[in-house]
Amino acid sequence: MAVYDTIGTTYATTRRPDPRIAARLHAALGDAADVVNVGAGTGSYEPAHTVLAVEPSPVMLAQRPPGSAPAVRGVAERLPLRDDAADAALAVLTLHHWTDPAAGIAELRRVARRRVVILTWDQRVFRERFWLVREYLPEAADFDDTRATPVDRLAALLGGARVEPVPVPHDCTDGFAAAYWRRPHAYLDPRVRAAISLLAQTGEAALAPGLAALAADLSTGRWQHRHAGLLPRDSLDAGYRLLTADT
């Protein structure tokens, strides 16, 4: 069973693509005439010239909006595509769900004639800079340690890649893990947590003590005092990274 068969039922509600992140991804794709979206989910960040989306979860596929690109069930490690099938291959916040990242990267390179674009995160930076996992939910960070692939290894697997930070806007509309860095109350909402695989897969029992501590700190103003420096900021580098590699 794909991970999102379980946790993806409300994904389309809180995981709406953020236009600023979309602009970065589309710029990285350049003038690619056609794109394959791997680990496509509900179709977030999918450019109009996507010719095929590949996604293992029928729950996610069922939430793709009308007019989306054709989609098939499949996994990154075994893409149902011929060599050089499209100008570019795109993978957005999906590598941590792959069973074999090296095999998946090799497949992206195989099907892309010109370019591979990947949005992922640097786990070391994420742990250091994101207050939620650093101060309240270290169990979630420990879980991510088991599934995050180091960015330098990904770049090497790609045969070399340009690596760029992708700061998270304070009002990010895509509710991934660090999206609410300036809106801490959101993490107390179970609907928000349900669409963040890091939290959903760690489990509510493990998260409960840290969430209770966060709720208490928000109630007393301790969080606001401790993180006063965050409140005027428009964006935060929480470790998200855009990798672009020419094939």
Tell me what you see in this structure.
The protein is an alpha/beta fold. It has one domain: Vaccinia Virus protein VP39 (Rossmann fold). It has helices spanning 3-7, 11-14, 19-29, 58-61, 101-111, 123-129, 131-136, 138-145, 151-157, 190-194, 197-202, 204-220, 222-226, and strands spanning 35-38, 50-54, 71-72, 86-92, 112-121, 162-165, 168-169, 235-236, 240-246. The strands form 2 sheets. It has a 7-stranded mixed sheet with strand order 3-2-1-4-5-9-6, sandwiched between helices. Strand 2, helix 4 (58-61) and strand 3 form a beta-alpha-beta unit. The longest helix is centred in the last third of the chain and has 17 residues, at 204-220. The chain is globular and about 60 Å long. The protein starts with a helix and ends with a strand. The mean pLDDT is 93.
Write the layout of secondary structure elements.
Elements: H1 3-7, H2 11-14, H3 19-29, E1 35-38, E2 50-54, H4 58-61, E3 71-72, E4 86-92, H5 101-111, E5 112-121, H6 123-129, H7 131-136, H8 138-145, H9 151-157, E6 162-165, E7 168-169, H10 190-194, H11 197-202, H12 204-220, H13 222-226, E8 235-236, E9 240-246
Parallel strand pairs: 1-2, 1-4, 2-3, 4-5
Antiparallel strand pairs: 5-9, 6-9, 7-8
Query: Which bin fits the share of residues in helices?
Result: 25-40%
What is the total number of structural domains? 1
- Provide the structure class: alpha/beta
Question: Which regions are unreliable across 5 or more consecutive residues at pLDDT < 50?
Answer: none
What is the residue-averaged pLDDT?
Answer: 93
The percent range for strand residues is 15-25%
Shape: globular
CATH superfamily: Vaccinia Virus protein VP39
The CATH level-2 architecture is identified as 3-Layer(aba) Sandwich
The rounded distance between the terminal residues' Cα atoms is 32 Å
CATH class term: Alpha Beta
Order of helices and strands: HHHEEHEEHEHHHHEEHHHHEE
User: How many separate helices?
Assistant: 13
What is the number of beta strands? 9
Largest sheet geometry = 7 strands, mixed
CATH fold-level topology: Rossmann fold
**Strand numbers in spatial order across the main sheet:** 3-2-1-4-5-9-6
